[in-house]
Structures are given as C-alpha cells and as structure tokens.
Give the backbone structure.
Amino acid sequence: MTWRRIIGCLLAVGAFVAASPTANASFPGQPARIRFMRIDTDHELFVMRTDGTAVRRVTTNTVHDADARVSPDGSRIVFWREPAGESDGEIYTMRADGTHVRRLTDNDDEDQMPNWSPDGDRIVFRSDRTGFQIDLFRMNADGSGVARLTSTNNRERWPTWSPDGAWIAFSLEQLGADVEVARIRPNGSGFQLLTNNTGTDDFTADWSPDGDDLAVWSDADGDFEIYTLPSGGGSLHRVTRNRADDLNAFWLPSGTRIVFNRADANDLEIHSIKPNGTGIRRLTANAVEDFLVRLVS
C-alpha cells in the first residue's frame, strides 16, 4: 500500500465512519474505547477496548456518514453526511441515542471534518465554499454564527481543538509545495506554522491530553512515521521506526499511549505505542482495512 493510496483514502472518507445511536462513549468513570471503520464489502463502525479486545460492531446501514465526533459531554455527535440526491456533503448533529438529527450546513459546496470545541459550544470544519481552496470555518453548535477562520490559496484540513480551547491545529496543504502543521486562534488570528520542513509532508492528528504536544505523522524519512511535536512548534520527536507507513495517530485519554494505523502490504491495522517509542502493540489483525477514527474520551 503506497502513501498516495493512503492519502487518497483519507481524503475520500475524511475522518471516516458513521456515527451510531449506541456508540460507547468513554467519559469519567468509564474505560476508554477506540473507534474504527472496518472496510470489507461495506463501511461500518466498530468499537474495541484499548487493548484490542471486545471488538463490537456498532453500525449496520448503507448511508454514507463520516467524520463522526462525540461532544465533550457525550450528549451529541457531529458528523458529515452526503444527503440523498446531492453531490456534496453537509454537517449534521444528532443526540447520542440517534434522535433529533439536525442539519447544520446547507449549500452546494463540500463541508467536512467537523470537530467540537472543548466546551461543546462551537464546531470547527473545513469547506470549499470559497472556491478552489479549502478553508477552515467555525460555527455555533446549532449551525448559526458561521465565521471564516482562514483565507489563503492553500488547503486546510483535519482541524483539532486544543484541550484548553485556545488553539486549533490543522494540516496546511500548500499548493505546489508540501504539507505542514499549523495552528490558529479560534477567532482566526495568530496564525503560526508549527513545522517548516521543505520536501516533507507533515500532518496533524491530535493534541495530547495535557495540551503540550501534538501527535503528527510525517514522511521525513521517506515513509510515514508517527512523531510528537511541541504544541508551540519545534523539532519533531520520532516515535515509530519501520519500513511501513504509520499514520492517523490519536492519544489515549491517559496520555500514556498513542494509537495509530500501520499499513502493511495488504491493508491497514491498528497499533498502539508509548510516546517514547517503546511497548508497541498490534490491536487488530485481519484481511480487511481497519481505519482508525478517534478515541472516544
């Protein structure tokens, strides 16, 4: 599996997977769960424990929903859906029990990759509504108050809010150049490049629970590996070392491990590792694609 195929899959499916009325959210007092999408003949959502056991199928449908994120209090889910008869995707929310589905965006453009603010009051997302470039936008949790955060000739993707709500980190695809990690204030000010590695693609994935570091994936050594990056920018610290492509990394809520996808010759599987690069564990092993979605914490 080449990195171009991996990136193509990520862009086509977004952060992946349908949300579910019974998705096992993990909140204080409950164990963390890992969500992932298994691609066989269909795209369905599964959950499992952080040690790879107790795998359970959550969704069974033919609707194309993706980019699912559980709100910080566990009461709502924001997700992407391509409505029937339309050729573009929109942002929706629903209650955790699957009721009260509400459409937040309604236009002829592609709105994707929504993510909650830490207080659950706002949603950041990416959209091509302004033209060929892809910019970041912010809106209230009810779809009102849409504000444009970035205005460049680049393409911004995979926004993720810092735990304290002060920053939004994202991947900045510079047209004709490479991909860097950047951050911006939720009001659109304070833009800052966190990486500046010519000829290298660096993708942001997730903030550490304490907000000190980002988990990123980069092809600095020729294939993709997992790295950590200080949240204010600086040098990448390499976590994985192998000849496979490692990507799409998320922190466990404890901050003690990073969960990520590894691509072998046939498919994607889920692994976890300590931030210092030790203690790697393989969590899935099968003949189908297991796309890591996100930890529910």
Observations:
- The chain has a mean pLDDT of 81.
- The helical segments are 3-13.
- The chain has one domain: 3-296.
